[in-house]
Design goal:
This protein is mainly β. The chain has three helices and 69 strands.
Amino acid sequence: MFEHAQDVTNQTIVSNVFWTNTMSYIYGEPTGVITISQWNNINTVNTTNDALYASNNIVMPQGPPPIIASNATVGGTFSVLQAAVDAASAGDEIRVRDMVLTRNIGQLNALSVTNALFITNKNDLRIIGGYDAAFAVQTGYTVLDGEGVAPDSRIVFITNLANLTFNGFVIRNGGTNGGVTSQHGTGLYIYSAVSSLFTNIIVSNCTSVNGGGVYINYSTNLMLYGDVVNNTASYGGGIYVTTSTNNTVSGFIASNTANRGGGIYMNGGAHNSMRGMICSNSAVRGGGLFVYGGSNSIVQSCIFSNNVSSATNATILFTNVTALAPFTVSNSVFYGGGSGSCAILEEAPDITNHTICSNTFWTNTLSYLYIESGDQIISNDRIDILNSNSTWHDAANASMNVVMPLLPYIAKITNTGGQYTNLQEAVAAAVAGNEIRVLATNLTRNAGQLNALALTNGVSITNKNNLRIIGGYDAAFAVQTGHTVLDGGGLNRTNRLVYIANLTDLLFDGFVIRGGGSNETAKILDGTGVHASNIAFSILSNIIVSNCISSNGGGMSIANASNCLISALVANNVSTNVGGGMSIDSCSFVTIRGLVSNNTGNDGGGLSIQNATNCTVDATLAGNNASVAGGGVFMLSCLSNTISAPMARNTALNGGGVRIKWSYYSTVSGAVVSNSAGDNGGGVYLFYETNSSIT
């Protein structure tokens, strides 16, 4: 910018971006210039710019704007996402980098434009986020960040198209955080779209009029699957669907807030269905779901947990639904939101011909199962009332609903005698020297026995020294008869079952840990079975970790541990990075015993050991697979570690049994038999080793 001749004053210079490799000066006037090295001067009122307002201007570092998108179909790279979309034609696939894109540095549309990204009149398009720098592998997410700085800032606007695939994006901070907006769906707004997929997305921290995170209008045959969390609106804190047909909303809808429909608000339309986890949402009316009018709404295979409605106490509220437009609620679980809460509420006019079947209601969390026109089925009434097609609620099909008894005590602190229905509550109550005994039963996250999925960890054991937590006890908590099962069910990508951190002298024994993470993506968490960090002099024994999917340490990840023993069966886990079964990082004097079998990872199909000292692997490693190196064990940058257990039937590209790289004084003393490599080292592959031995 340059002022010529007459001096200019009282101008406004705010929120601009200056790329330093494209100019020598930022600002000039007859009396002087602001150079690149003086760029902070553009944010202050001074004699060079004489501005009335001068703030929030930024200078980008040397070099051209980074490439953030590529057209994988016809070629071409882009530094602005809107340019990539505008240039695309039917059938094209746009791949977007796994990085944070914002509006103030030119990667998305500027704040002067309502929508950070327009996708309009573009049929048969695939827009996939989360790619690496080569645009070859989807490694995570692309973050589209509205930064919550403008009240009418919407992040993604989609309209008038068909057959769009939109995958791999985090959409956050639309609208103004805590402020007032005039826009609907400031995270994701979809209007007049047909037969499109919105999968593997996260929409969070957006504020809107209706549809805090997502707004869908006049659309048909859409599939929306992802996480919609921590959004706010008047109607539909998480999602608002109106005048739309044959759409499916599925995923994790949590911690959203609204006046009507804390999680989801359905307005009109027909044959729209909801599936997935709907939990910890809040509203004045309809804490989890509010359905207004429309026809044939379907609630199927949902888990409703801890949703709160301050006026009606209803998890689901149906209103203005007529006999010609019945609803269906089936195969769902209701875990209430406290005293006075109701699972399903009908409001006038009277609804008939609906279906309520095969649902489960936890009686100690609900005061009412069903309310219609002032009549109530309270939680301890006979369930056959709800299962009848009588005039009581005029259902066409009401059957196979069950009421579960009060949640049993599943843990006891032997030192105090305290008994608990939730394992986290028992851990929170324990002090140094206590022993927690846990019932030999199956504990899940959707039944209140572990932390709800709104929290990352099923149970967190942190800052608790000298503690014993032992699973597998009989009903009297007297005899250890087997194992306690902690089951994540593979429901959610941020679902970790056990988190242990910042403690010493822990004994954790007698647990089966399974189903951490999910197959939707494993790019978020390490060790979705067990993750332990900053622990010492602790024992994890008699445990089984299986069927988990993670980034590092498919089943278990151990970091910054010292003087610990891990004795476990670790089987059938998957890592998308290192340590299909288990990862050991920055540890010393840690011993691994047991069996590590049939796990899969990139490096270290069974076990990855990095930056470790004086650790011992005395666990049998069998049938593991690494796509790159170390079918059984991958060891990197280590000192004085020993592998003394047998390794058999492991496979990798390099080092079928074990791959050791850049390490010192490593010892392999166990039997290494029947392993195979596609390239180098069917049994053992050493690379840049010093004083290592195979005996």
